[in-house]
Amino acid sequence: MTRVLLVDDHQLVRAGINRLLADAEDISVVGEAGSGEEALRLVTSERPDVVLMDVHMPGIGGLEATRKLLRADPELRVIALTVHVSEPYPSSLLEAGAMGYVTKGCDEREIVRAIRTVMRGERYLGADIAQRMAIAGLDGADKPFEKLSRREMQVMMMITEGHRPQEISDRLNLSPKTVSTYRHRLYEKLGVSNDVALTRLVIRYGLVDESG
Q1: What is the Cα–Cα distance from 66 to 52, expressed in whole angstroms?
Q2: Cis omega before residue 88 (within 30°)?
Q3: CA distance 85 to 90
Q4: What is the pLDDT of residues 46-76, one digit of tens each?
Q5: Reduced to 3 states, what is the DSSP secondary structure of residue 59?
Q6: pLDDT per residue over 161-185, tens digit each?
Q7: Domains identified in the chain and CATH numbers
Q8: Which pTM value belongs to this model?
Q9: Long-range Cβ contact pairs of 89-95 (< 8 A, separation 24 or more)
Q10: What is the pLDDT, as a whole number, of residue 135?
């Protein structure tokens, strides 16, 4: 029996995935987490084989949570489950050690197939994600977010979600001055002058849904 931990900050999403996996006789959901921090705690107590990890969550987020989980347990299989199909998220997650990447729009057969595939020690990419990555690798297009560090990416995504500097400071355990430094560094690296322009750039590259 494959033991699965669901990690997503939306309870309805977790409930939906639970229902999708209910009919798979070889898969058992052993726990649910609403954040990366909670996932770190539950992995220790529930000992799952596979973690279905939402990429974009408050706090440390799916990318950093994946890194931390795999440092603690290299045998753990992480599958990113997300709305994001554009760079840099697929490459970043795979480089961090995730073995699968599927979108939330996939059907239950694909999620089950992804879980079974990574349990065999093989990588699984949803078809739409694989296509995007192939195109990105061939077209030679500029990829501005590759210039960013892991922390800069975290700060950027929180800014584009509308979080205030103090909230970013509290969640990421940074001083307000450091958050301000990251913000201005983002402006310089990405060639923008304010948060509105930064958000537009992030939307244009598909890292967030324009509808919010």
Answers
A1: 10
A2: yes
A3: 7
A4: 999 999 999 888 888 888 899 999 999 999 9
A5: coil
A6: 788 999 899 888 899 999 999 999 9
A7: 2-138 (3.40.50.2300), 144-204 (1.10.10.10)
A8: 0.65
A9: 89/55, 89/63, 89/207, 90/125, 90/129, 90/132, 90/133, 91/133, 92/63, 92/153, 93/55, 93/62, 93/63, 93/66, 94/123
A10: 47
